[in-house]
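Illustration 12: Transport permease protein.
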Amino acid sequence: MATQRSNVTAQDRERLQDVLRYGSLVENFARRELRTRFLGSKFGWVWSLVSPMASLAMYTVVFGVILGADRGMEASATGVKVFAVYLFTGLVAWNLFTGVLTRNVDGLLEVATLRRKVAFPVLAPLAGMTVAIVAERSVEVILLICVYVLLGNIGWSFLWIPVLVTLTALFSLGLSMAIASLNVRFRDISHLLGLCLQLLFYATPIIYPAAFVAHHFGNESVIHTLFVSNPLAQFVLAYRSVMWSLNSPPPSQLLGLVVWTIISLTLGWAIFRVRARDVAEEA
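Figure caption equivalent — predicted structure in token form:
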């Protein structure tokens, strides 16, 4: 009877209005995440740039210099043709998406033991971790903006960046709610996620221009259709449109990103709400 009553209470607590009432708890989880992120590290937040910069250097050499992926790259709005910057623009979107997704999947397991002792909405730590990852990845965004300023490739379209960052984080949060709650019971999901992200990375126009797909497979091919249907591809294209081409996202593309984000949050919340009440028992 006690277990049943505990489950009912947990389910009752897993409501959006309760998460809003626990705003201070979300803030505490975000602060805790940022505080412990580089705990004991001498260089602290410098490490938040080391990994993406190392990846950027490797991809630039392998794909830009050796494989010549920059040959299909269009010039920026001001005539800049620096493949590293073009690549970094795509990586910023990708790193934000994967940062929120993977941290929430791992993080839900970490707070499961705490959930056995204290009753709180399980969504609160996921929301807090999402805020923390956005803050951390914003360092990359700011660095990229500074690079564009130095290159003179700057315009009013940059005002869309906060909108795109918010949509990317919410889209990833929706996916992470579903995957994290299922991963608590089926631990193989986290390993499968790593494999899927590797495949998704190369199916997204980050290290190659989007025009490559249409050029090699044709606009009517199945591969091109799947490519266009990939929401991450649309996110990357939107970032490049805003920062590289200095254009506002096309209305159809922006609407598509909003729709994808709503679908992700709706489905993620539906699965999460059913599974969240069992997090403490199954972890």
